[in-house]
Amino acid sequence: MPSLLFVCQANIARSASAELIARHLLGTGGAWQVASAGVSALVGHGVDSELAGALHRRGIDASAHTARQVDLALLSSADLVLAFEARQRAWVLKESPASVRSTFTIRRAARALQGLPRRAEPLSFLAVDDAPYVDADDFADPYGHGPAAAESAVAEITELLEVILAAVGATPSAAGSRGERMLHGAPPGALL
Question: What is its EC number (predicted)?
Answer without folding.
Answer: 3.1.3.48
